[in-house]
Amino acid sequence: MYDSLSDSDIVKLAQSGDGDATDFLLRKFGRLAKRESRTWFLIGGDEEDVSQEGMIGLLKAIREYDENRDASFSTFAVLCIRSQIKTAIRSSKRQKNLPLNEYISIYGDGDDDSRQSEADAPDFSYEPERMIIEKEQLEGLNMRLNRELTSYEREVLDLFLEGLPYQEIADRLGKDKKSIDNALKRIRNKLKEK
Fold it and tell me: Could you give the C-alpha distances from 2 to 10, 31, 59, 97, 104, in angstroms and in order?
């Protein structure tokens, strides 16, 4: 029945409440949503979670498509699917579900337009190589801090990195606020020296 209609016409029917038209579009473009969702890997997550986000993006595309905007439905659908997946991954960062907080694109640079490029990825993405380099850098920084900072400066830095305000750090360490400020200045200077 819908095979003889254009995608735009079927979308109009779906937008007017034709459930069969919506089902037809979901079947027709469902593979596209699955393909787009495969470009992301959630560490500790389930492949089906990303796939479902892709289908939600497809549903949004059906609901929001406007043929007067110089884009075919399939192009618009890809944008909506990608956007939904990215949004879901970003919002998972704010939740307590750790496996969804760390993900990587399995396609590196993404030269192919159908693949998610690393440049489009949110800042909290991690590649295994980057994780190793960052771990080594962190270990080096910790060694340097232990070597160059006094135990008092280290305590001040630890509390400061926890996000405590100067006054609370001062109260915890039994010092005045100016002493905390001076310690943080010394720490900054020591770190700038090398």
Answer: 7, 18, 18, 41, 38
Classify the C-alpha dihedral 38-43-48-51 as positive or negative: negative
Residue 152: Cβ-neighbour burial (10 angstroms; 0-12, 13-18, 19+): middle
Residue 125: both structure tokens together: 């993405």
The residue among 43, 46, 110 whose CA lies nearest residue 82 is: 110
d(CA 183, CA 181): 5
pTM for this structure? 0.48
Q: What are phi and psi of 176, to 5 degrees?
A: -90, 165
β 40-42/103-105 pair status: antiparallel
Q: What is the pLDDT along the chain (194 residues), one digit of tens a residue?
A: 778 888 889 999 999 998 898 999 988 988 888 888 777 655 445 677 778 888 888 898 999 998 888 788 988 998 888 888 887 777 665 544 444 444 444 444 444 444 443 444 444 444 566 667 767 776 777 787 788 889 999 899 888 877 788 899 999 999 999 999 899 888 888 877 65
